[in-house]
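Quick note —
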Amino acid sequence: MADKRQHSAAASRSGPQGLVAAGILADGIGVLPILDAQAALYLACGVLALLFLRVPERVAPR
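Predicted structure written out below.
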């Protein structure tokens, strides 16, 4: 139970910081480039997940 309280407390502290950072970035470079960068990061993470989470090939016993 204590872990849930700690997690929600950490999330509540980082929320305003994320909003401020998003506002500054959106004013500086615009919303669409930020969304494009986010999409590129999601795609890169998906490709990395496919590469690292593959089932290893079975080696024939000798």
